[in-house]
UniProtKB/TrEMBL annotation:
Record-annotated N-acetyltransferase domain positions: 37-191
Taxon lineage: unclassified sequences, metagenomes, ecological metagenomes
Native species: marine sediment metagenome
GO molecular function, one term: acyltransferase activity, transferring groups other than amino-acyl groups
Descriptive protein name: N-acetyltransferase domain-containing protein
PROSITE patterns: GNAT
Length: 271
């Protein structure tokens, strides 16, 4: 269940003194409400506000992400708000109005529910976050179309330092499976043939079925050649050294590891 925003939230009069708002550690109080509130915030994000989320994650994916503790600090923003409907005054109650986080790269992200925007909760949450977690410098990645967020961070003393561009790669096919891949991280050695999207739930192999077969043939020929070299070095021709033999055996093992990756790709293509 997602949290209900008070029906009178559209008519908020918020007292702005410092004691009317606090940050509640999401990791320290993680439960059904923590998952629901942060998921509700994602649901409210518009295209102008989003950078990392092009599509809405499933509830299970979101739970897995939150549980993985992806940020250095993650807080719910709790404020004491006073709602004033047309006919009566509601009692002032503590309400979760948004969330703010600090990544392990010292990047700050903040989002306030639409019903509570315009009350300085975002800027005050960022200031409280920086007070609780001193750093030499902080970063904020903002969609350039999000003028409200740009103005807020500039008002807090942040300055523009770079423009980042992305070229979407579209869909990468994995047999009957397809996943969108944008920002990628190349792995090393035997995993050089795998591109892993920053989303931990998305992994794509960059070679298709035909390419996998071609690579498998090439690897098999290379492996056969290496076995011949190993046989010659074991006999001990003039000028051969144990170091040379060790290097060739290492190359052979790497070859086997790469072959395993390619075979895995072929198996996934058949799924």
């Amino acid at each position: 269940m997602t949290p209900d925003i008070p029906t009178c939230a559209a008519n908020i009069e918020a007292a702005l003194s410092e004691d009317t708002m606090q940050l509640v550690d999401l990791y320290g109080t993680l439960g059904a409400d923590g998952y629901s509130i942060t998921y509700r915030l994602l649901e409210e994000r518009t295209a102008e506000q989003s950078i990392s989320h092009r599509t809405m994650p499933t509830w299970e994916e979101h739970q897995a992400f939150v549980t993985s503790w992806p940020y250095a600090a993650w807080y719910l923003v709790e404020a004491w708000v006073r709602c004033i409907p047309e006919d009566r005054m509601c009692p002032r109650t503590p309400t979760i109005v948004g969330a703010v986080y600090l990544t392990k790269a010292d990047e700050i992200g903040v989002f306030i529910f639409k019903a509570y925007q315009g009350n300085n909760y975002g800027s005050r949450a960022v200031l409280k976050l920086m007070e609780a977690h001193p750093r030499d410098r902080y970063l904020a990645n903002i969609n350039p179309a999000n003028e409200r967020s740009v103005n807020m961070f500039e008002g807090l003393g942040f300055r523009h330092i770079q423009n980042t561009y992305v070229k979407e790669q579209g869909n990468v096919g994995l047999g009957n499976h397809h996943c969108g891949v944008s920002t990628k991280e190349m792995l090393t050695y035997a995993d050089d043939f795998i591109e892993k999207a920053r989303n931990p739930n998305t992994t794509a192999v960059i070679v298709g079925r035909d390419k996998a077969r071609e690579m498998a043939d090439e690897i098999e020929r290379l492996r056969a050649a290496l076995l011949v070299v190993v046989g010659v070095l074991e006999i001990g021709p003039p000028g051969s050294t144990p170091g040379t033999l060790s290097e060739v055996i290492g190359a052979l093992r790497l070859c086997d590891a790469v072959r395993g990756v390619v075979e895995h790709q072929g198996q996934r293509d058949r799924e």
